[in-house]
Every structure is written in structure tokens, then in C-alpha cells.
């Protein structure tokens, strides 16, 4: 589904270069749930943004279903992102002045659905994440856990092939974090999605099919015993 070959990302830091990703390889199979762990600043979020076409690598190549990103125009990358990827971030980035229903439906409207069609699908997904009675509440009126469930519904309402999640439980207490992890795992399985998850939560990571550690710019497979250290 997603493949990265010899991926490299370099940031200019003063007079020197900061190498974040260094000849990194990654292969994510269809239907797989992969967790990426590592220390803060190791480049996990940068990697996710590059995979999601939100940032550009300094070198190497990424393929989605065999199509190289380098062959796509900016408009084609935007279309790829809108039609195939869903994103959930540590900060939910909901618009507080809009209702939960409007927040979930917004990407659908951008895709070209009518307001009525977007509202129907948004309502279906709010029900799916257990918020069918909160659709007309503004985002700012919702609890942190509810806001993150709205963000998850927004990411999935467009039927993405790949869900990319960057610390989706990072701003939540333990109870709400566990509920979001349960929900993400359930929806991943029920909808046959491919999921790439960046997390510091080892309990969440161990639910995934594979755990990969990003260290010194490269990914290494982590065994269950290693994640307990």
C-alpha cells in the first residue's frame, strides 16, 4: 500500500545540516496496522507528514499502490491526499465555532459533495464513534475525548484507504486515551483500513501488527519484549 525507499530528510540548522531521516525504508501492506515509536525529535511526525504528502523528502522515493510521489503534480498530490488518506493529530484542529457535524462534513464538501450529502455521511460517522447526540454541539462545547472522536470521524468520513495518526491519544487522560485506542482498533478492523500510527503509548503500539522504532534516521522492528523496557 505504502512503500518508502532510501527516504532522506535534511533540515538546515544554522551552518550545518540536521539529518532526520537517513536512507529510511518502509513497506506497509494493505490492511496492516503499523506503529512507529521513538524519542521526541527523532523524526516520527516528519516521516508521517512526508508519507501523507504534507511535506517533501530531501531524497528517496515514496510509492502509493506502486505510483511514485515524484511523478505527481501538486494538484495530483492534493487529490491523492483528499481521496485516499485520513489524518488524526495530537491536536484535533477542530474549528470551535462550527458544530461537530459541520467539522466532520467539511472535507466532504471540499471533495465536492453537496451540503446535504456531507451532512448525512457526517451524521453516520458521528453515530459510529458514539456521538450521534452531539452533532449540533459546537466543537468548543465538547470534552477533550469527544473532540478527538469528532476528529477521528472527520478523518474516516471520506473512506480513506490509509489512516495516518500522530499521537492521537497524546493530549488525553488515560481513560479517554484507552477509549480512543479501542475505537481506532475496532474501526481499522471493521473497515479494512491500513493504519500508520505514531505514538509514545507503548500499550497502544503493542495492539498493532508491527512496531517500528525510528532511531538515527532509520526504522527497526521492535519485539514485544523490547517495548517493555
Cα-based radius of gyration, to the nearest Å: 18 Å
Supply the number of structural domains: 1
Q: Helix count, per DSSP? A: 8
Oligomer: single chain
Q: Which H/E pattern describes the elements?
A: EEEHEEHEHHHEHEHEEH
Major sheet attributes:
6 strands, mixed
Q: Indicate the percent of residues in helices.
A: 25-40%
Spatial strand arrangement across the major sheet: 6-7-8-3-9-10
How many runs of DSSP E, i.e. beta strands? 10
CATH architecture: 3-Layer(aba) Sandwich
Structure description:
The chain has about 230 residues and is of the alpha/beta class. The chain has a single domain (about 30-55, about 70-225), classed as P-loop containing nucleotide triphosphate hydrolases (Rossmann fold, 3-Layer(aba) Sandwich). Helix content is about 35%, strand content about 25%. The protein is built from eight helices and ten strands. The protein has helices spanning about 45-50, 75-85, 100-110, 115-130, 145-155, 175-190, 200-205, 225, and strands at about 1-15, 15-30, 35, 60-65, 65-70, 85-90, 160-165, 195-200, 210-215, 220. The strands form two sheets. The protein has a six-stranded mixed β-sheet with strand order 6-7-8-3-9-10. A four-stranded antiparallel β-sheet has the order 2-1-4-5, covered by helices on one side. Helix 3 (about 100-110) crosses helix 4 (about 115-130), helix 4 (about 115-130) packs across helix 5 and helix 5 runs parallel beside helix 6. The longest helix is centred in the C-terminal third of the chain and has 17 residues, at about 175-190. The radius of gyration is 18 Å and the shape is globular.
